[in-house]
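Supplementary Note 3. Input sequence used for the single-chain structure prediction.
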Amino acid sequence: MQKPDVAKQPALTPVLENYLEVIFRIEAKDGAVRASSIADMANVTRSTVTGAVKLLKDMGYVEYSPYSLIYLTDKGKDIGRKIAHRHFVFGAFLEKILMLNPEDADVTACALEHVVPEHIVQRLGEFVLFLKSRPEMWSDWQETFKRENIFKSSHTAATIAETLGGKRRGS
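The predicted structure, written as discrete structure tokens, is reproduced below.
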């Protein structure tokens, strides 16, 4: 007896995760999502959105039919919420702690949210909350960092490794 062919579900790619994040954010704000809203927020064409939404529907992440509103399924909400949270944690760390400009922080957060393991995201979030909960530490450290940044004139991996007591690879 032959086993029936079971089609493998395609993997959820970073691009599709971004769509779930965008849909999650719009749905949380407006209650329902239009393809045009996704296109505007993601800076892509409506036809690109339609293709992605059809794939997400086939994967069970959204409810969708042509020319209608788009809603996340429970499965889609879970992933969208997770990616939005990861983006927020990285964005807060990069902008508020590392003092990157908002655009660089956002672009970098978007790249990191798909590849960094969950336990590291959680730890990073805990660190941000720790600093925010300690006003005495929070208020002074950024100015001190700007004033005393020892790597400002010489920012190389060797200098950082030497400063931290580590050895360079290949040494």
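Residues 5 and 58 are 17 Å apart (CA to CA). Residues 83-162 form a domain with the Diphtheria Toxin Repressor; domain 2 fold (CATH 1.10.60).
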